[in-house]
Amino acid sequence: MITPLVVVLGSLGTGALILALRRFVVPLALAGATLSFLAAIATFTQVQMTDSRVLQLPGLPSFPFLLLADARASLLAMVVATVNLLVVIYAAGYMTDERDQARFFAELALFTGAMQILLLAGDWILFITAWEVIALASYLLIGFWFERSGVKEAATRAFLVTRGADLGLYSGAIILSMEAGTTRIDDTLRLGGTAALVAGVALLIAAIGKAAQVPLQGWLQDAMVGPTPVSALLHAATLVVAGVVLLLRVFPLLSPSVLLLVGLVGGVTALITGLTAVSQRDFKRLLASSTSSQLGFMFLAIGAGWPGAALFHLVTNAAIKSSLFLGAGIYQHTRGSTRFDALRGVGRRHRWVYAALAVAGLSLAGIPPLAGFWSKDAVFAATLTGRHAAIFSLFAVTGAVLTGVYVARALRLLWRGPDTDERSDREQRISGLTWMAVGFGWLVVLAAVLGLAEPVLERRLGVTVPQRAAALLLGLLAALLGLVAGWLRPADYWLRRLRPVAERGFRVGDGLIDVAVRPSLALARSCDIFDRGIHDFVLSTGHGALRLALGARFLDDGIHRVVDGIGALGLALAGLTRRSDEVGIERLILALVSAVRTLGGRARQLQTGLIYRELLLASVGALAILLVVVLTY
Amino acid sequence: MVPLVSIMVFLPLAGALVLVALRGASPRQAHLVGLIASGLTLLAALGIWMRGVDGGFAQVEEVAWIPSLGAAYRVGVDGVSLPLVLLTGVLFVAALLFSLKMDERVGAYVALFLLLETACLGVFVALDLVLFYVFWEVTLVAMYFIIAGWGHEDRQRAALTFFLYTLLGSLPLLLAILSLYLGSQPHTFDMRALIAAPPLAGLTATLTLVALLIAFAVKTPVFPFHTWLPAAHVEAPTAGSVVLAGVLLKLGTYGLIRFALQMTPDALRSAAPVVAVFAVFSALYGAFVALAQTDLKRMVAYTSVNHMGYVVLAVAVAAAASREVVRSVALDGAVLQMVSHGIVTGALFLLVGMLQDRAATRDMAQFGGLLRVTPVLGWFFIMAAFASLGLPGLAHFPAEFQIFLGTFGVWPIALVVLLGILITAGLYLRAIQATFLGAVPDRWLTMPGLTRSDIWSVAPLLVLTLVIGIAPWWLLDLIHATVERITS
Prior knowledge:
The complex is a heterodimer of chains A (633) and B (488).
Chain A: H1 2-21, H2 25-46, E1 53-60, E2 63-69, H3 71-94, H4 101-120, H5 124-142, H6 151-180, H7 185-188, H8 193-210, H9 218-222, H10 228-236, H11 239-249, H12 256-279, H13 283-303, H14 307-335, H15 340-343, H16 346-349, H17 351-365, H18 371-383, H19 389-415, H20 421-424, H21 433-449, H22 453-461, H23 469-488, H24 491-495, H25 498-503, H26 512-550, H27 552-577, H28 583-606, H29 610-632
Chain B: H1 4-21, H2 27-51, E1 58-66, E2 71-77, H3 81-98, H4 106-125, H5 129-150, H6 155-183, H7 191-196, H8 202-219, H9 228-235, H10 238-263, H11 265-292, H12 296-320, H13 324-359, H14 370-373, H15 375-388, H16 396-410, H17 419-436, H18 452-470, H19 473-487
Antiparallel strand pairs in B: 1-2
Helix pairs in contact in B: 1-2, 1-4, 2-3, 2-4, 3-4, 3-10, 3-13, 3-18, 4-5, 4-10, 5-6, 5-10, 6-8, 6-9, 8-10, 8-11, 9-12, 10-11, 10-12, 10-13, 11-12, 11-17, 12-13, 12-16, 12-17, 13-15, 13-16, 13-18, 13-19, 15-17, 15-18
């Protein structure tokens, strides 16, 4: 059980070390990522198909924390560790000129470490912990350049939208844990009936938020303001992937009706965000929409009842999507922007990068023999089975055509465009290019060849990846159709009047702001006004009552007489009790009297008559106790 | 056996008396006396912890006083009170460390804080009703003087509010105490006896419970008795706010467990749904009102209404649940939540106070981008804010999650209270965004960073926040041993 722990601590430990030392930042980050990577490989080779390893921590009373490395968890841990290592290598170049490197790499380590805990979590509490820490890390990383305009809003939005959806995770986990009497995830999945149905829907909501599916897809677009290596990690291996990981994890729990819902959400998302991607004017925003759309394919496969296909698509997309972002980041350094109008023709200047991007892009579109072809084929085959084959496969085909269109469109915009002579002087030498090329290059290689992972999945994980000749053909046709269409005609030609709507991500009005934020703020303001109302009411009635009871003059200068009165009363009482042989009471009363007098005397110097009232009250209370005691004695 | 509990309770008072004796002490000397007294008190509290608590009342110290009346000096700790005692010890040291720059009538200021510490510790360890009531009243007096003497502009109004609510809160407590005393056979003020054999039944029990609920609802505070809280916080000096939110609010929920749950259990079981409705409403209402605030201190004050609402809900759950595991998970959560809230909110008030000292305003609209100017203050605030919004891995999460688990076990519908964690997320992110992110307005460019005493006062609280969040078991084991006895 030591290697899974090293996977986690390799990240978290270096993060802490970087923050503590604030020196040797890049070497430390590289060392931590490498360590985590090696440990992940070791774990994967150790864990056999039926075997899983468990580490138990005390946790909460009767709910221990569990780390559990089974075949699927260790495979995903390896994927995450690999992408993380290559992204860290890339970031070593990308962040060369950044002054706050320590913060960046520490936050990156927190991000990856939390994702690894999520994959290895064996109980719901640890799972939620990792899930939310991932959200925190992405908040910090999206907000990395917090002084720039638009950044703080994007970070806040990403965290709030996902947290809203997380209420589903909380509810689902609480329902399952209390019904099953344990927080151990695998044991809670055996539940059935209403609890399973309600929990399933609740968990689906959480997955939708995290994986940026319709209707919660908008935040992912804005999250692009973070540094590009973060985008690569966030889209390929950590944040959004967590949504799919959740569904894969709880698959045995999901009833047919919930699965139908999963499939529909995925299908609609593949369609809607595919259109959004076609309409984008910014390379990174196009890629962001594409992420939602590809995750939609995974939802479709799960909804069709084939988690194996979703897992396969997840693995290939980890390489494809991260390599595309890293390529975009290199161009960003060249031209200082990721908008297509700034990037036009950049492909002709940096042909190697362009060629690599093209490989990753074609893999995404699903052109054989690249990885994306095989995994998309698996998703297609999945949608062709089951009761909802007609509707699910229609979503899949349309989504695949759209993928072809936006890939071809991006490649065209990067290649064509005005002659770049006047731009060339603006194109400076890219600092840190070597590091970036290494990370980028390896990911492109993976994006090309990861189709070979399929037999490994089947052999080591025991999952079935569906295959069909019809799916193969259908997928290829859809991809080619999309590519040709996208290459020949611009977005306006295909989208026409739909374009402005698509570009805004099909938001209605101000989107979430209209739906949730404004009403909440309005409610908050009414509550505040109401609250001030209560306060004033209490004050005025209280004040009135006091006036009535005590008289205004009494309030101001008469109270010390009452204090004296208490003193006299106390003395009398003490005299009364002298008859008894209990010296305690007498002493207590005398002490109280003198205390009231001295405090009263001091208070006079300090402040107003209010203090007397306070003292009066305290001593009246104590006297009342005494009176009762004496009377009942 | 050294009477460590009594030593701990009266150590701060001894410090206060030293200060009264040394009337002409310089500010430096006064601060030194305060730090030594509160530091030794913390050490004594740790010593009590080291000695161990087995679940029941341990380390009981008893001095006969009026035997025929059943009144005596009785103190002791269990797994519910000891965490709060430790919290009190930590927060008073933090508050006095923060106050080191204070130079206005320092002797009286420190003496009042020490008096307040004795009173708070006394309430937590008292095992006799008379003793409990005396300490309870002294906390009010001491806090009153702190606000009135060292508060901000509008102390008159705050003082009046404080007075009115105190009136509302103390008298019912007094009546309830008398009712418990008169109901017991033979008459006794011994809380252990009253817990072992709850004396009341029927209407008397219900009326007593109502009195207790009102008294503790004011203190906790629960809607609609909460409006004194923001008013008092806005006027109180920073260190006063730390103690007010961190310790004094816990007196209410501690009383709820000690009296309502333990001494009138049957009455509370039948009243639990009503209490739960108030608690859920209070938690959500507090969150929404907090969302409307632009004054950082008022905002943090209202989040206390939210967080303490969860505690009250958990006590109601513990009273109503039929399954033992549900009762204990809720009560574990309630006690841990009190500690977490004390530490996290204490840290937040300290940080807002530091900001106020530097900017002379607490209006978040005036700020922006301060993370670049005072990064340590900014990162501390971000961490404390995320803890307060319930991020897992930080102190509030294990407590709140247990409370939610228990709640679902009794009233699934009450899970609507989960909305609270979304609203608090929204309000803290907005505060962070407005205060610390974005571009810096020119006038704040020269804002000085934190001093060493600033960092020393708040950093230990943040470390505790992280430790409780990551490894809650070191505290929960202590709590759970007692909770098991209460709930079985």
